[in-house]
Design a protein that fits this description.
Helix 3 (about 70-75) packs across helix 5, helix 3 (about 70-75) packs across helix 8 (about 165-170) and helix 8 (about 165-170) packs across helix 10. The chain is globular. About 45% of the residues lie in helices and about 15% in strands. Strand 7 (about 190), helix 10 (about 195-210) and strand 8 form a beta-alpha-beta unit. It is α/β, with parallel strands linked by helices and about 325 residues long.
C-alpha cells in the first residue's frame, strides 16, 4: 500500500472557501426530484477481499449514467432567465456534456457541447440523443476550453464549466450529503478525481458535518495531476495526460479543488490494468457496469493502494457510460 502525507496540502489561512456547506444544502433543495437520490449498495465480495464493509455510491444510475447531472442542473437553474434563454455551452470529454444537454432540455434551452474527437462514441451519442449540438476539436482539454470560449463570446451563450465553477461544485456536493445520510458510520470515502469538482464538493459537504471521515482521492497513473500538483506546490491547470481508459479524469485540476486541498486525507493512483480488472470484477461479481473513470476507486481497493482506517468504506462509482465493445474486450480477456 502507498500512503500520502496525512495532509497533502495547506490552504492559505485567510482564503475564503469557494464553496460552503450552505451552498451545497441550497443545491440539494434545487435538484430534489430532478437528480436521482442514488442508492448506497453493500458489496460482500469486495468486503471479503479487503476485510472491511464496503458500499458503492451508485452514481451510474443517474439519468445520463453519471453524477454530473447534479452540478449541471444546479448551475443552469441559477442562471438568470434572460441569459439562460439564449442557451448554454460547455466543453467536456463526455459525461458533463451529456449532463448539460440533459439539464438544458429540462429547462427548455439550447445546449452546445464542445467535445474531443477522441470522445467515446457512447458519450457522443448520448449528447446528441439529449438534443445537444456537438462541436468536435482536438484531443487536448485546452482545445475544448478555447473553442467553447470562442463560441460563447460569438453567440452570447452562458458557460457551464465542467468542474471549476461554484454552482457546479455545489451541485456535485449533494452526493456527499446523501452518503452521510445513508451510511453515517462511514470511515473512508474513495472519490475519483480529474479536474476535482466532485472531490472538492465532497470535501466541503463531508468535512463540514463529519470531519473524522477520511477522503481518499483516486486518479489514473496516466493523469496524476493532483499528485503532481501537491509535489510542486501549485495547481497544474493543464496536464499532459497519457492514454487512459479513465478518460473523464484526464487533464489538469481546477483552482477550486486546489483551494480545498487541505481537506483531502490521501491521494493514490492506479494503473490501466488495475482499472480494467476493477471493471471486470464489478460487472461479473456485482452486476455493476462502471466506466473507467467510475471504477478507479474499486481498482484502488483491489490493488491495495489505500491505507484503510478501522471502519466501513464508501466508493463513489461516478459513471457507467462504457462502450459495449470495450466491456466485451475486458471481460473476454479476464474471465
Amino acid at each position: 500500500m502507498s500512503r500520502a502525507p496525512a495532509s497533502p496540502g495547506t490552504a492559505p489561512a485567510a482564503a475564503r472557501p469557494a464553496v460552503t456547506i450552505d451552498d451545497v444544502r441550497r443545491a440539494a433543495a434545487a435538484i430534489e426530484g430532478v437528480a436521482v437520490r442514488t442508492p448506497l449498495i453493500e458489496m460482500p465480495a469486495l468486503a471479503a477481499l479487503v476485510g472491511h464493509s464496503v458500499a458503492l455510491k451508485c452514481e451510474q444510475l443517474q439519468p445520463i449514467g453519471a453524477f454530473k447531472v447534479r452540478g449541471a442542473y444546479n448551475a443552469i437553474q441559477r442562471i438568470p432567465a434572460a441569459a439562460r434563454s439564449r442557451g448554454v455551452i460547455t466543453y467536456s470529454s463526455g459525461n458533463h456534456g451529456q449532463a448539460v444537454a440533459w439539464a438544458a432540455a429540462k429547462v427548455g434551452v439550447r445546449a452546445v457541447i464542445v467535445m474531443p474527437n477522441t470522445a467515446p462514441q457512447i458519450k457522443v451519442d448520448g449528447v446528441k440523443k439529449l438534443g445537444g449540438e456537438v462541436v468536435f476539436v482536438g484531443p487536448r482539454s485546452v482545445d475544448r476550453k478555447l473553442k467553447a470560449e470562442e463560441i460563447c463570446a460569438a453567440e452570447g451563450l452562458a458557460m457551464i464549466p465542467p468542474f471549476d465553477h461554484p454552482d457546479v461544485i455545489a451541485g456535485q456536493g449533494t452526493c456527499g450529503l446523501e452518503i452521510l445520510e445513508q451510511w453515517p458510520h462511514a470511515d473512508t470515502i474513495l472519490v475519483p478525481v480529474g479536474g476535482g469538482g466532485l472531490l472538492a464538493a465532497l470535501a466541503v459537504a463531508v468535512k463540514a458535518t463529519s470531519p473524522q471521515v477520511r477522503l481518499v482521492a483516486v486518479q489514473p497513473e496516466a493523469s496524476a495531476a493532483l499528485r503532481q500538483s501537491l509535489r510542486e506546490g501549485r495547481p497544474l491547470l493543464e496536464y499532459p495526460a497519457g492514454p487512459t481508459l479513465a478518460d473523464g479524469l484526464a487533464g489538469g485540476i481546477g483552482e477550486i479543488l486546489w483551494a480545498h486541498r487541505a481537506l483531502i486525507d490521501d491521494v493514490v493512483a492506479v494503473g490501466e490494468d488495475e482499472i480494467e480488472d476493477a471493471i471486470a470484477a464489478l460487472a461479473s461479481q456485482d452486476q455493476v457496469i462502471a466506466e473507467g473513470s467510475g471504477a478507479v476507486g474499486v481498482a484502488a481497493l483491489r490493488a491495495e493502494r489505500v491505507a484503510l482506517g478501522p471502519g466501513p468504506i464508501v466508493v463513489v462509482v461516478t459513471g457507467g457510460n462504457l462502450d459495449a465493445a470495450v466491456l466485451a474486450r475486458i471481460l473476454s480477456q479476464r474471465l
